Amino acid sequence: MLARQPIGRHAASVKYDLMTAMMVHGLASDKITQRRVMRLMLLVTSRYNWQKAELSIGQQEIARLWSVDPRTVKRELAHLRAQGWLTVKRAGVRGRVATYEIGFDRIMADTRGEWPRVGADFVARMDQPKTEDAVANPNVVPFARAPASVPTADGSAWSAAAAALHAEDPVLFGAWLQPLIDAGQGGPICQLIAPSRFHATYVQTHFADRILRHLSRHDPSIRDVRILAAD
Fold first, then answer.
1. Which residues, 6 or more positions from 129, have their beta carbon under 8 angstroms from its beta carbon?
2. Which CATH architecture has domain 2-142?
3. Which Pfam families does the protein's record reference (predicted)?
4. Which residues pair with 101 in a beta bridge?
5. Is there a smaller number of Cβ atoms within 10 Å at the N or the C end of the chain?
């Protein structure tokens, strides 16, 4: 996956891809998240300076754009900052509005699970290791991408489930499930280790039911799955 700056001759397509990733994630989420994503997208499309890679806007103007009161603006901006989707580049002081940066790298990581909904071509384009613009721009930082290789069968419930999950959706498997390590069973609970706390939380929230379905097919004694973090 690549956190790409939307500049150069491919800028237009990159912008559309970023917006697509945000939209498909928002529509797959709860109503609160949908509204928050839509609000951020409005700021990006209406006020974001792509050349300077920054967003300069006051809270009163945000309130007008969002049709909300200033208190709601403060609360939503706090959520976006905590989520890593928005960071303060320069605080608003002495009558000047604040300047923000959009955390496109974090947005890409958070929306990755919904990319397959758009299509395999979209996933391949977003996951490409580099672009011509990225080579020319040393400030563009690529993310490592795990290859979606076929899991090795070792007789365990997880290896059997992993093979089924890979066959079901190799793109999703390569992005989120392949890095999981079998930590064994604790009674009726299968425990899997994810490489980070964020990864563990995301998989537990979005894919635990799917994983459990395949695990229980191989071993009916498994009644639950827990995704733990290695860090």
1. 2, 142, 145
2. Orthogonal Bundle (1.10)
3. HTH_Crp_2 (PF13545)
4. 87
5. C
Domain 157-229, CATH class in plain words: alpha beta
Q: Where are the domains of the chain?
A: 2-142, 157-229
Whether residue 121 contacts residue 131, with contact meaning beta carbons closer than 8 Å, is answered with no
Share of the chain above pLDDT 70, in %: 84
> Taking the CA of residue 212 as centre, how many other CA atoms within 13 Å lie in the half-sphere pointing to its CB?
16
Sign of the torsion angle spanned by Cα atoms 152, 155, 157, 163: positive
Sheet with strand 99-102: strands edge to edge? 48-49, 54-56, 99-102, 86-90
Helix boundaries (H) for the chain: 11-27, 31-47, 59-66, 70-83, 104-111, 115-118, 120-127, 132-136, 157-168, 170-172, 197-218
Distance CA 203, CA 160 (A): 18
CB 160 within 8 A of CB 195: no
Contact between 190 and 209 under an 8 Å Cβ cutoff? The reply is no
Instruction: For residues 229 and 75, give the distance between their C-alpha atoms in angstroms, rounded to a whole number.
Output: 29
pLDDT in tens, 36-57: 999 999 999 999 988 888 899 9
What is the pTM for the complete model shown?
A: 0.55
For the packed helices 59-66 and 31-47, what is the interaxial angle rounded to 10 degrees?
Answer: 120
**Amino acid, res. 103:** G
74-84 confidence digits (pLDDT tens): 999 999 999 89
